[in-house]
Amino acid sequence: MAEHYDRRETQYPDAREAALLAALPKQIAHARANASFYAGLLREVASEDVTDRAALAALPVTRKSKLIETQTCNPPFGGLTAEPLDKLARVFLSAGPIADPEAFGQDWWRMCRALFAAGFREGELVHNCFAYHFTPAGAMFENGAHAVGCVVFPGGTGQTEAQVGAMRQFRANGYIGTPDFLKVILEKADEMGVDLPSLRKALVSGGPLFPSLREFYDQRDISVLECYGTADLGLIAYESEAREGLILDEDVIVEIVRPGTGDPVAPGEVGEVLVTTFNKAYPLIRFATGDLSAVVEGLSPCGRTAPRIKGWMGRADQTTKVKGMFVHPEQVAAVLKQHPEILRARLVVTLHDGADAMVLKCESGADVDRTAVAETLHVQCKLRGEVELVAPGSLPNDGKVIEDAREIA
To answer: Can you tell me whether residue 197 is helix, strand or coil?
Structure first.
């Protein structure tokens, strides 16, 4: 049995990076020429100059949180698509609501690598429990399964007893769906006295695969691996049998940046996931997922050579209300830009004598004028706060820029 989907998964890392960066100027030029949103956002960018990660990091961020606003002003897709509506294969409406396109083409969402790494092979039957209505997940994974050569049963969500019956009748080899719904199905099968001996693998997404849940499946001799993607981007990263981080898809550039900014963090530091795709119909450039993750150093033991991330580690949108006013990560980032002597910072919101209070904890290896920083904080947030200096490396590496500790208090 082949261990990898194709040779791209085991190419030299430098060759992969060079190929992606060589394709980047063409994709930016394509987005500017064919998607009105990027024609405006990147109007001052010389696409031929964006040939390395530093140049990419200088481009503006496209935030997921702004999609609803953009699409409301310019329906249906906010000018982000490079294909007209009548040239698309399917359209979806995800929570928000956010409109998502799908163009024609095999495995348009690039899910095949995740399925192959999870052990799915040609001729096997996949029981797909992702939703087939409104959102793209069901179609997304079905297209990937077809690219691998699998037969698909479109189970969708709910109807647990019927799911058990279908798995037994068609002798499903594997499951695709959320991590917890498979457990519900298996427990219902136990309750019904139904054995499902053919079910030996699963690819899950859309929720956390907790260690206790993975152990539950391992005890039943079902290999469960996870992947990470979004309705906007398709596949971003996937797990292999090594179970050591998630391997980036071959056709994306991923950056980990400080929440509220577009500034890359140091390797291993937790930050927000930004993705640039090479999809011609939906050319998202520096698309902020709103998810937190971190780079895993080194290469996977499975032989795949693409970079790895740790997987989903929380949400980057840490906006909170203090004294009736919203405070955003972008405002904290603005403080740091004016005071480069600060290495990292975290704004901690607490209750003091029944009133909201803010303390900006700052890591720094140099002298810091706390009074000046406090004044900048006041200017940016329109609120007063204290400034506390802490030792370099003492703040938690969890991606938090704003910590709301009022519930604890």
So the answer is: coil
Tell me how crowded residue 124 is: count the other CB atoms within 10 A of its CB. 20
Secondary structure (3-state) at 187: helix
Terminal CA-to-CA distance of the chain, rounded, Å?
56
3-class SS of residue 184: helix
What residue type is 338 in one-letter code?
A: Q
Type and span of the H or E element at 296: strand 295-296
Q: Copy the structure tokens of residue 335.
A: 């403080």
User: In this structure, are residues 283 and 85 in contact, taking their beta carbons and an 8 Å threshold?
Assistant: no
How many residues in total does the chain contain?
409
Look at residue 409 in the predicted model and tell me its pLDDT. Answer: 33
Per-residue pLDDT, 354: 67
Q: Return the C-alpha torsion angle 267, 47, 252, 205, nearest 10.
A: 90
Interatomic CA distance for residues 227 and 235, integer angstroms: 8
DSSP 300-320: -TTS--S-EE-----BS---E
Q: Is the bond leading into 76 cis (omega within 30 degrees of zero)?
A: yes
Strand pairing category for 325-327 and 271-277: unpaired
What are the pLDDT digits (tens) for 86-139?
999 999 998 778 999 999 999 999 999 999 999 999 999 999 999 999 999 999
- Return the HEC string of 343-385: CEEEEEEEEECCEEEEEEEEECCCCCCHHHHHHHHHHHHCCCC
Taking the CB of residue 139, how many other CB atoms lie within 10 A of it? Answer: 21
State which amino acid sits at residue 364. Answer: S
* Residue ranges of the chain with per-residue pLDDT less than 70: 1-2, 354, 407-409
Please report the domains of the chain, with CATH numbers, ordered by start residue: 7-309 (3.40.50.12780), 320-404 (3.30.300.30)
Cα(266)–Cα(275) distance, integer angstroms: 17
Buried b (16+ CB within 10 A) or exposed e, 215-234: ebbeeeebbbbbbbbbbbbb
Coarse DSSP helix, strand, coil percentages of the chain, rounded to the nearest 5 percent: 30, 25, 45
Rounded Cα distance between 34 and 279, Å, is: 12
